[in-house]
Structures are given as C-alpha cells and as structure tokens.
Write a structure and sequence with these properties.
Blueprint: H1 6-9, E1 19-22, H2 28-37, H3 41-46, H4 48-57, H5 62-73, E2 79-86, E3 89-98, E4 102-110, H6 119-133, E5 138-144, H7 148-156, E6 160-171, E7 182-185, H8 191-200, H9 204-207, H10 221-224, E8 231-238, E9 241-251, E10 256-264, H11 270-287, E11 291-297, H12 303-309, E12 313-324
Parallel strand pairs: 4-5, 10-11
Antiparallel strand pairs: 1-2, 2-3, 3-4, 5-12, 6-11, 6-12, 7-8, 8-9, 9-10
Helix pairs in contact: 2-4, 11-12
Length: about 325
C-alpha cells in the first residue's frame, strides 16, 4: 500500500482535528517518516541520529512491540512516546524518559509541512504533565545550539539554558597515557562513590536538576547507550586524589564510541587530559569502533588542544535546557 506523505496532506490538516496520544503500532510508518526529518546537524554529525533510528526501528519487531506495549500498560516502560495524528498520519512526536530526579525529553519533531501550528507545544505539555505525575521535579533536554527556532519554543515553555557542550568527532585514534599519571578502571562497587565526586565537581546549575548516579554519570548516557551497550568508567588520580572521571561506551550497530568527560579538575592540562581519555579511547577501539565522539562542556580552552592532538575536530555544539515542574 502506498503511504501518502505528510506533505501531500498538509493542506487538508486542521489543527483542531489533530489527536494527541501515545504511539500505536499502526503509526510506525509515518512516525519513522517524521523522525527522519528530525535528524538535524547535531544528530548527523555525531551519529546520534543513527542510534535513535536503531531504537525506534526495533519496534517493527512484533515481539519487541508486544513487550513495549505490555510494559507501558503495566506502567513500567522507561520511555513514553507521544504523537500528534491526523487521518492516520503522524504529524509530530515527542518522547520522555524517566530518570531518578528528572524526565529527559527527546525526539521532538514536527513535520516540516505543518510547523508553526503549536503541535510541538501540545506534545511537550503532555510530556511535562506526565513528568509531574511521575513526581519528577525537573524536565531536561538537549538541542543544537544553532537551532534558534527550537530554542525559542523551549524558552517559551519555561526551559532555561544551563550548559553548553562541544562535540568532537573523528576516526578512533590510538591514544597514549603519560607515565606521570595514574588512570584506573572503576569497578561497579565504586560507582556510587565516583558519582558523588562527579557531582561535587560539576556546576550546581547542572548538578541540581540532573545529578550523577552510579548508573549514569552524565545525562548524555540516555542518548548514547542502547540496552546491553558495553560501558566502561575510568578515573585519573593525582597525589592519590581523583582528578578526572571519564565514561566510554561502544555501539556496535554504528561502530561508534562515545566518550563523556563527566567531571575534571580545572587545573588539568596537556598530557593530563590525554591521559584521562586514553583508556576509554583504546578500549572502544579494541571493540571495533571506527568513529569516536567526545562530548566536553564549554568553555573549551583546556580541551581543544587535547582533542586536536588526537585528530578530533569540533563539529557542533549543543545546549542543555531544563525546566522545573510546576508546583
């Protein structure tokens, strides 16, 4: 059966006739069509778009969809996906994931033919209402720093900018660590202790709404990991004290490694910075990664030379925005 594109139908759409509800299996063809439009510069440059599509395309599998639908009915599914639908066509979508202290908003997309009609606003309000119902004091999202139209929408809905991040990308390099520094892999038994150190060394503007946990040191792990993704954590120590914590993950489906600088001592420079990331880089390379993506919070004075030394280039910046739940 030929699927009519949303663009073919946009002249027929009446905003008042749009139904807002959760994703159904029958929605998947047009849902994926809209999701593809949401793969902007940030997603394409970092491979995050491929990661998202792998996740959503898994719903085509009847067994996976049945499990998702069952868990959703039981209130145990970690992600809820809302859509705006008219005449069987998905016009927009937004997803919300529930984490210990906050709800993470992702996949906010409106079809280009029907933008400016408040569809994204309606979808986001539903994610916010659900976050409040779940008792989450904050909602958080990331957006391409150049996407001014989206940032305006989020600000209008009460989101505030809390941090900016630079994304460095390149072929996975060989990295060496200086003998003057000690870098060790963190066992699972020490993750809570490491998470506490990370929070003490992050700005309150980020720490308060999205605290680190033993499972996720950074909110970026929500979008850079899939189920059963290999993950490793390393800490650099100086004079017996932790000076940096790095998280690495590898996604075989896209042969990409993601290295997240969770926190570090601002006094580190040069070889210290390279030493901090070297184990994560080499570990993911050994697993078969051919592309490496590193996320670092701005300002970047100290990290830019270290990234250049590994052959990585800054390709884009993103903005972390958060909103407090209404009382």
């Amino acid at each position: 059966m030929h699927l009519r594109s949303v663009s073919d139908l946009h002249m027929e759409q009446d905003s008042s006739a749009i139904e807002y509800r959760e994703l159904q299996r029958a929605d998947l063809p047009s849902f994926e069509q809209v999701m593809l439009q949401g793969l902007g510069a940030w997603e394409q440059a970092t491979g995050l778009g491929q990661v998202s599509m792998v996740q959503f395309q898994s719903f085509r599998n009847r067994g996976i969809w049945a499990l998702f639908a069952f868990m959703r009915a039981m209130g145990r599914v970690p992600i809820r996906i809302f859509v705006g639908v008219n005449r069987g066509q998905v016009l927009g979508t937004a997803s919300v994931l529930f984490l210990p202290n906050y709800a993470y908003i992702a996949g906010v997309v409106t079809d280009s033919a029907v933008r400016g009609r408040g569809i994204a606003t309606q979808l986001l309000e539903r994610t916010h209402a659900l976050a409040k119902q779940k008792g989450k004091p904050w909602s958080a999202l990331d957006v391409d720093s150049e996407n001014e139209s989206a940032i305006r929408v989020y600000r209008r809905l009460g989101y505030q900018e809390r941090a900016r991040f630079a994304w460095y990308v390149g072929p996975t390099p060989l990295a060496s660590a200086s003998s003057n520094h000690t870098v060790t892999e963190v066992p699972r038994s020490q993750m809570s202790e490491v998470a506490a150190w990370v929070d003490r060394n992050r700005p309150p503007a980020v720490r308060d709404p999205i605290p680190a946990t033993g499972r996720r040191l950074s909110h970026f792990e929500t979008i850079t990991r899939l189920p059963r993704t290999p993950v490793g954590t390393w800490k650099l120590t100086s004079a017996g004290q932790t000076a940096a914590v790095v998280r690495g993950s590898f996604l075989p489906s896209v042969r990409t490694s993601y290295v997240i600088l969770a926190a570090w001592d601002p006094g580190l420079t040069g070889d210290s910075l390279l030493s901090a990331v070297a184990p994560a880089v080499n570990w993911t390379r050994s697993l078969g990664a051919t592309r490496m993506v590193v996320a670092v919070s701005e300002p970047l004075d100290m990290w830019a030379p270290a990234m250049a030394a590994m052959g990585l280039q800054k390709v884009i910046s993103s903005v972390l925005m958060v909103r407090a739940s209404a009382p």
